[in-house]
Amino acid sequence: MKKLYRYLSPLLILALLLGSVSVSAAPVATGSGLVTTQAALSAERTDADRERIQEILSRADVQEQLIAQGVDLAEVDARVAALSDEEARQMADQLEQLPAGASAVGALLLVFVILLVTDILGLTNVFPFTR
């Protein structure tokens, strides 16, 4: 058994040492030069922004509205493809901030709860089922 430990211990120590060595986050070499981590992340974000824009524009209700306003769908795709990275990021951010109808439902629910609580406390007389 001691013989096994004598051979196995150095191998385990070597495996632990090699496993704990971290690989540095060096730039990736490409054919045209080096790509930094920031550039790679920026490219991923731009791709995600363009995908988000395409996802929204591919919805049936959005396409119906575009057609109703006389916009050619092929032209829309061409314009989205021609957006610069900064324009795509701004457009995706604006699309995220647009109300989607959920805020109206939330506001109505909040008003209902407030009126219900004030009616239960006797401050208002809105709902007859609270008496």
Automatic annotation (TrEMBL):
One of its Pfam families is DUF6627
**Protein source organism:** Billgrantia endophytica
**Top-level taxonomic group:** Bacteria
Query: What is the designated name of this protein?
Result: PA2779 family protein
User: Cell inner membrane as a keyword?
Assistant: no
Q: Which UniProt keywords apply?
A: Membrane, Signal, Transmembrane, Transmembrane helix
TM regions (residue ranges): 104-127
Secretion signal, residue range per the UniProt entry: 1-25
